[in-house]
Amino acid sequence: MFTDEEAAVYDRQIRLWGIHAQQKIRSADVLVIGLSGVATEVVKNLVLSGINSITLVDNELVTDLDMLSNLFTRNQVGSSRADAVQKYVQELNPRVMVKVKNCSPAEYYQTSTIDLNKVCNSLSIPFFSAWAFGSFSMVFCDLGLKHGANDKIFIQFDQVIKQKSFVPKDTKIAKRKLEKIRKYKSVFLIFLTMYRYHEKNGNFPNVKTEDDTQLLSKELQQLETELVEELNNTLTDDIKWNSLDGWHSKIWGQFAFTTSIVGGFMSQDIIRSVTKENIDFNFFFHRIQCETEIEMQNHVKALRKELFQNRGYDPMARPVLNYTHSMNVSLYLDINYIKKLDIQTNVLESEGWIRLTWVDENLKWKAADFGGLNDIRVSVDEVFRPDITIINAVETENVLRTSTHSDLILWNTANKIDLGSFVDNPEWEVIDSKCEYKLHMYFEGASYPEVIYYLTIERKVTIYRYTVYFPVLCALLINLMTLFLDIRTTLRFHLSSLSFITLLLIILYLAFKLGFGALGTPNVVKYLGQMIVLVSTTLVWSSFAVSFSRSSFEVPTTVMRAIEPVQHWLVSNDIEAVQLTNTDPEDQLKPSTTGNNKRNQSASSTNLIVIQVIDKLIFVLFSILTIALHN
After folding, report:
1. The dihedral sign for the CA sequence 14, 16, 19, 20
2. What is the Cα–Cα distance from 427 to 465, expressed in whole angstroms?
3. CATH of the domain at 381
4. Could you read off the pLDDT of 156-211 as tens digits, one per residue?
5. Distances 610 to 167, 562, 569, 605 between C-alpha atoms, Å
6. Phi, psi (deg, nearest 5) at residue 4
7. Which residue among 459, 491, 526 closes a domain?
8. Do residues 315 and 379 lie in contact, with contact meaning Cβ atoms separated by under 8 Å?
9. 336 versus 359: which is more confidently predicted?
10. What does the buried/exposed string (b/e) look like for 512-532 if buried means 16 or more CB atoms within 10 Å of the residue's CB?
11. I need a surface site. Which of 82, 103, 125, 353 has the fewest CB within 10 A?
């Protein structure tokens, strides 16, 4: 029975498989011989499940290779593996009794695990064995003759090792097992080679230096060659065994991701055997990579030979089985980045992809016949391609095509183009984009389609705010301010000239920056040109107003009466003072008693009033034009 504390700790497990199953787990005693990466993962999982006791048998020390598994750390190098694992798992669940025996595993079996398996089988003690080499792993299970699953027919492990045969006495099982080996024969050959090495040397390959790796690789290759000859001479089925290349350098160490998965599956099945749950396997392989890289390459070669040689594929023929059928092509434009906008030539240079998708009915295959291959990479000249090109592209380059087993062709073309949309650019912002399809007709009633992409972009306000906008704004304000100054002051003409020169320099800077031969005219250049015209008009008006104010021309009485209602708003009340202030000193010394001088002074005052009224009207007009033209 469980205590309240144990019931609380194992509550989730009890809810999963029930109280009776947990009681069986609680009474289980487990012996673990050898603490490799897979074994330590199994020990951790079994201790967490709440077994009664577990005994660890190992006399090895922690080495650098053990760092590839889960439980060992760098500061444990040189210490006992069994003691290190005991300390770790005891902290995880102190309710489980963890025993350690620092002795050689050979004390528990004479020559190999096969002897130990026979003893366990005769006593109906579940026996599990697991190995992992690099990315390859294997699990063996024998639940004993009296287990609940003993109605199944199993292949004896010793027969596999000694006879290299998968032909059991029952013919029904034979075919099923042969099909399983057909699928995993590459991994099976690798493990047979490893066991042959163990049988010869008493241990599995273990490297410490680069020289050891080279020597062990040569020895494994020699053992593999011998095994291939034995298998081909012994087996009578249609499975042909061939040597594999490249795996000898990929079996060193036990990686954490491999041992975690294999140890997890193995722990699950150990618990199922303890609780008398039925297990559907006796001998199986668990491999992280479904097919070796060598076999995958062979499948690719076989598929390419089938598609392009055996079938007589013609890349110049339209890929349809019936020539009366049409072929649909989907066109996609993906712009990743804008590299350069040349205002002079009106070319937008960008980087992106044009994706073309169509169906090639001549490139179909069954994935199951070629190792599960769903797609392959092919050269652009090997398959049919539609007659599609970018007529105004700066540069194009064909890079890659992909053919899938369902006859779908994907062709990615790297391009530098002048159309499309793009992902955020520090200088330009997308305003609008659209696509247009046109059908063009040419001689003899033939036609060709055209797809046009339109992209509207706007320059982001960056340095132009300080080099263009602010100076232009100041120049325009100064120009408008001059209309409030007296016409007889030289300051008015100087300020207008300053505004004109400022705008002229800015527009020359932009012309040099953007190019005098630009096909398109930017809006800012158009606006500056219009403002220069207004400032020039101000200078012309100022010159005319000075001459008009000094003339003896008398303004008609009707004009004076027309502007009389707005004089107190638009005309300064201190005209006489302004006039006296601006009169030449020599004129002040002359006697002004003659009638002509009085008439001239009266006409001058009248002219000043008219000029001031016109100044205010021009100010209003220029202000409206400045704002309106900007918008």
Report:
1. negative
2. 13
3. 2.70.170.10
4. 333 333 333 323 233 333 444 545 566 566 677 777 787 788 777 766 776 666 66
5. 121, 11, 13, 9
6. -60, -35
7. 459
8. no
9. 359
10. eebeeeeeeeeebbebbeebb
11. 103
For residue 544, the enclosing domain spans 464-630
Q: In this structure, what is the dihedral angle of CA atoms 255, 261, 263, 267, given to the nearest 10 degrees? A: 170
List, in order, residues 6 or more apart from 166 with CB less than 8 Å away: 155, 160, 174, 177, 178, 181, 235
CA–CA distance, 520 with 416 (Å, rounded to integer): 21
Q: Which two tokens stand for residue 34?
A: 């050898």
The answer to whether the beta carbons of residues 224 and 195 sit under 8 Å apart is no
Which residues, in sequence order, are CB contacts of 298 under 8 Å at separation 6+? 371
- Range in 74-83, 454-463, 573-582 the model is least confident about: 573-582
Q: How confident is the model at residue 556 (pLDDT cuts 50, 70, 90)?
A: confident
Query: What are 184's two structure tokens?
Result: 């995993």
Amino acid type, 112: S
Cα-flanking dihedrals φ and ψ of residue 358, to 5°?
-150, 170
Would you give the end-to-end CA distance of the chain in angstroms?
A: 87
- Indicate the pLDDT class of residue 239, thresholds 50, 70 and 90: low
Contact 31, 50 (CB under 8 A): no
pLDDT greater than 50 at residue 31: yes
Q: For the chain, what is the domain count?
A: 2
Same domain for 430 and 528: no
Question: Side-chain half-sphere of 180: how many Cα atoms within 13 Å?
Answer: 15
Specify the DSSP class assigned to residue 10.
Answer: T
Residue with tokens 């350690």: 100
Q: pLDDT band at residue 274, thresholds of 50, 70 and 90?
A: confident
From residue 549, give the alpha-carbon distance in Å to each of 36, 279, 481, 572, 617. Answer: 109, 115, 20, 15, 17
542 pLDDT band, cuts 50/70/90, is confident
Q: Go through 608-621 and write b for each residue having 16 or more CB atoms within 10 A of its CB, e for each that does not.
A: bbbbbbbbeebbee
Characterize the bridge pairing of strands 283-287 and 406-417: unpaired
The answer to whether the CB of 583 falls within 8 A of the CB of 529 is: no
For residues 441 and 472, membership in a common domain is answered with: no
Q: What is the mean pLDDT of residues 65-69?
A: 70
Phi then psi for 222, rounded to 5 degrees? -65, -45
